[in-house]
Amino acid sequence: MKYNWNIQEIRNNIVTLNNMLEFEKEEEKRETILCQIETYKTMLNITVSKKYNGLESDVEKLTVFETVKSFFEGFEPEKEEDIYELVADSYPIIRDFSCDNISISTVICDNETLLYNTDIFLSKYLPSELYQRFLKFKKENPNYLHIQKDCGLNDYHGITFTDYVLLKKYVLALRNNTVYDIVTLPHEIFHTIFNDYNEETFFNSLYYTHEIEGSLANFLVTDFYLKEMPDFGRELMIYFLYDYQENIKSLLYGIYYLASLTEKFRFRENKFHKLIASYQLPNITSEEQLKLCLSSNYAETINYSLAYLAGLDLYKIYKNDPELAIYLLQNIRYAKEEQNIIQLLRRNHITFMNDGYQNLKDHVKQVKKVL
Predict the structure, then answer these.
(1) CA–CA dist 303, 320 (Å, integer)
(2) Which of 192, 208, 237, 317 could make an SS bond with 325 (beta carbons 3.0 to 4.6 A apart)?
(3) Beta carbons within 8 Å of 270's beta carbon, 6+ residues apart
(4) Residue 147 parent element (H or E)
């Protein structure tokens, strides 16, 4: 069975938003409406072109330097420096991890099987109240899900679109017939569950916490398959740690390169040069070399890196007290005030910044055992 968004529904949403735009005078609200219109145009394009290459408005291809620079626009070193350093300083723990000889398993199954396994996972790992909330959402939004073949041109395995104006959510899941398919749906559904419709909440936490529920989902799905299909579970453990390692390297290179070229970051150039040298990463001297070192989606690098560490801490809590872990996740995701993210994490039992990344050290040992 095919799962596709309803094209007429999407077009109707665009018409509704355009009508609202005509009468909206407040500039900030107009920008929000315009953003949602662009999102729906992107969704229409996905249904036609069968690929996701970013929002329709993101037509200009930035240089590597511009990409890194745009990510750090508005950066306030006195408030946020510790986030990048705390994440980057975990690199020595994973520096020697290697999975070069591991092949990716082929997984051939129909959409119904993927959805069935996802539903079993959610029923076992979510508190009953949240699971019932998801069933209600699915019943009220029969066209929320779009599944299609991954053409190899996308930066994501999936993405969740949230409309903060009309209060709607849609999920895109890309399939490539590999083991990654079994985690994409649970990951995106966690986003639909833990990302509420409060626009202020979303944008306050956008750059630092919005991937934490996805990271926790990844660890929980891995746990699920370690019990149900151990070979797949072990492969997911390896893949997610490798992905984290690549993100940390990308983060280091991006900050160092920007520090060497931008006055705002020059005070950090020596520090990050020493980090790269001490972590035994190759030095770079040009933008062309940097292209080989940055992840394809650099703007999300810090999010995914921080989310991996926080998600791992929440997963360890979940193993002993599932309800507490979900409660803490909601505290983090629904924080309604701009605040120091590290302090927010500390208040909600995220410990990697205080205990020397102990859970990461233990997890790396576990992963190395299955190699």
Answers:
(1) 26
(2) 317
(3) none
(4) strand 145-149
The span from the CA of 217 to the CA of 223, in Å, is: 10
Place of tokens 């924080």: 335
Is-contact 43 5, C-beta < 8 A?
Answer: yes
Distance CA 289, CA 27 (A): 41
Q: Model confidence at 149, in pLDDT bands (50, 70, 90)?
A: confident
Q: How far apart are CA 196 and CA 169, in angstroms?
A: 10
| Residue-wise pLDDT tens digits, 239-281 | 999 999 988 888 877 776 666 655 555 555 556 566 666 666 6
Task: Give the percent of the chain with pLDDT over 90.
Answer: 51
Name the region of 357 (left: φ>0; alpha: ψ -120 to 50; beta: rest): left
Q: What is the C-alpha to C-alpha distance for residues 197 and 162, in angstroms, rounded to an integer?
A: 8
d(CA 114, CA 159): 17
Tokens coding 77: 């070193």
pLDDT digits (tens, 9 = 90+) for 38-86: 999 989 988 877 665 554 444 344 465 565 666 555 555 555 556 777 8
Rounded alpha-carbon distances, angstroms, from residue 28 to 21, 31, 195, 196, 298: 11, 5, 21, 20, 27
Angle at 347 between CA 341 and CA 348, to 5 degrees: 95
Rounded CA gap, 173 and 79, in Å?
A: 36
What region does 349 belong to: left with phi over 0, alpha with psi -120 to 50, or beta?
A: left
User: Which contacts of 260-263 are long-range, i.e. CB under 8 A and separated by 24 or more positions?
Assistant: 261/65, 262/69
